[in-house]
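Workshop exercise sheet. Pairs work together: one partner reads the sequence aloud, the other fills in the structure field after running the prediction. Swap roles for the next sheet.
Pair: D.N. / O.F.
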Amino acid sequence: MQRFILLLIGLSAPALFAEESLKGNKLEDYLQRALSANPDLQQFEHRYQAAKQRIPQMSALPDPMLQVTHFVEPIQTRTGPQENAVVFNQRIPWFGKIKHREWAASAEAEALWFAYQNRQLRLVREVSTLFYEYAYLQQALHITRENLALLKSIEPIAETRVKAGASLNSLLRLKVEIGKTDDRLQSLAQKQVALSATLKAMLALPEGDLLPWPMVDETQLLSLNPEKLQADLLRENPALHMLEQKIISAEARKTLADLERYPDVVLGVNYMQIGDSEMSPPPMDSGQDAWGVTAGISIPLWWNKNKATRAEAQENLNASEQELRQKQNMLKAELTASLTLLNDAQRRLILYGDDLLDLAQQSVDNSFRAYEVDQTGILEVIDSERSLLELQLLYWRAVSDAWQQRIRIQTLVNHPLDGVNL
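Structure field:
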């Protein structure tokens, strides 16, 4: 597990397990805390450790049977009365039964190991998604506050003009826009509280103050190879390895079900305690204890039961194979969707960052200066400011979407991507 997740997020081993609290506002800090403290992840580890303990149980022989009999009324024999009898039996399963039980238990433990790895990746994905959503919220709050401040700075000018005889309608429209922007700001503030609480729950942090704003770099454009990523997905994804181990376990259990038609062997030792003979004169072997060995077999008599056991094992194997096939299809579709969304986010980054944002900012500056000298109306100022606000939010939405899809792709293929420095 340690090597697996360190390769993913590029952390050092001591930092991963020594981290006891959130020490910074970078993604690495969030992931360190989540991987070391998240209770759901820890319960997966405990389940894996429990499954490992089943392997020696399945590889051992059944417990032997020791039987002691005391004869209340001793049975008289020529050499003396039978007083006590001790019987020791050991059941030995048919050749291959123990081996395949061990194989099945081992494969099930391996399946839980890969389930543990898959839960790590899911946790990285979930924390990263919320991290970048939190980063987007930071920008949305900042941009909305600036927009609100700009609108409020126009309000005294509009009031002065109304007092000078200008139409009241412009001032009313401005106040409506200020109210709507303030309402949006309040909603974003409440969303910060909700997102912070969700992140804290995933990081196993106590309730209290809001999490600090994250530190995020604007994403760089990537050119990815879908065919290579699809191959890496099928080769490296732990969810697929988990299902492959389930198939191995089902195959072992199918073989074990086939072996149930063969009998188990029972070997034993009998010991009989003999008292002194009351015959006169006593025989020469009077009072000598007797012992013997026994051998037996179980009889797999109920043919319908064994047939049903074999059919059940075959159906479980078929189900596991179909589950793997379905998971492969779903993961490939998920990877394709993430690649498509990443390409779209990168397209929007180019569109907004290179062209539209500069034009929108120029439009706001021009309309504001024109309004100050009474060369344009308040509606043009509001429209240009609203357009800039929308484009700025769309740009940072694209930044967040791009990072989220990059992390999603990274966790799907289970290895770092070129150009992704977490």
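Discussion prompt: The domain at 2-37+98-129+192-261+304-413 is CATH 1.20.1600.10 (Outer membrane efflux proteins (OEP)). What would you look at next?
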